[in-house]
């Protein structure tokens, strides 16, 4: 078996570090996507709770941010009008049902993206394992 040069070993180590860096960056992006999915879920729950409160004849109350970590108590007069963020700085007024539908679609899109990212993370993990196996093989062969 041919001797492995120092350049080959440095290349192996650099590839290993790059795979680890990319995998960590992907994990961080996945955390952001998961937080967005959880935010969609919480928003849907909140809209449903507001609708249920008004159906029961109760006043829908909330706290509205007024700036610098301060809030004011407020009553929601019309829970069937929800302003939904459409992305790219655009928002639209929708009924509660339409808002929930929009949020569910967004959640589905985010879930698909998360699945794709998970598949990519699996490939990075396999690449890392392959590099570890190569390093172990070289070490056992006494080439390192």
Task: Summarize the entry for a quick read.
This protein has 144 residues and is of the alpha+beta class. It has a domain at 6-79 and 114-134: Helix Hairpins, CATH 1.10.287.370. The protein contains 2 helices and 4 strands, in the order H-E-E-E-E-H.
Summarize the topology.
Elements: H1 6-55, E1 60-67, E2 70-76, E3 82-87, E4 90-94, H2 96-140
Antiparallel strand pairs: 1-2, 3-4
Helix pairs in contact: 1-2
Which key phrases capture this entry?
two-stranded antiparallel sheet, 144 residues, alpha+beta, single chain, 2 helices, two-stranded antiparallel ribbon, Helix Hairpins
Q: How would you describe what is shown here?
A:
With 144 residues, the protein is α+β, with helices and mostly antiparallel strands. It has a domain at 6-79 and 114-134: Helix Hairpins (Orthogonal Bundle). Helix content is 66%, strand content 18%. The protein is built from 2 helices and 4 strands. The protein has helices at 6-55, 96-140; strands spanning 60-67, 70-76, 82-87, 90-94. A two-stranded antiparallel ribbon has the order 1-2. Strands 3-4 form a two-stranded antiparallel sheet. A hairpin with a 2-residue loop joins strand 3 and strand 4. Helix 1 runs antiparallel to helix 2 (96-140). The chain is elongated and about 80 Å long. The mean pLDDT is 90.
């Amino acid at each position: 078996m041919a001797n492995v040069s120092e350049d080959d070993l440095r290349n192996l180590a650099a590839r290993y570090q790059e795979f680890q860096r990319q995998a960590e960056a992907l994990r961080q992006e996945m955390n952001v996507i998961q937080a967005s999915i959880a935010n969609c879920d919480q928003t849907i729950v909140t809209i449903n709770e507001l609708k249920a409160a008004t159906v029961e004849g109760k006043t829908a109350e909330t706290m509205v941010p007024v700036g610098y970590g301060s809030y004011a108590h407020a009553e929601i007069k019309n829970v069937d009008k929800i302003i939904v963020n459409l992305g790219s700085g655009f928002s639209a007024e929708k009924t509660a049902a339409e808002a929930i539908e929009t949020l569910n679609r967004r959640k589905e899109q985010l879930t698909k993206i998360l699945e794709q990212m998970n598949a990519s993370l699996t490939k990075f993990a396999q690449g890392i394992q392959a590099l570890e196996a190569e390093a172990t093989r070289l070490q056992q062969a006494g080439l390192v």
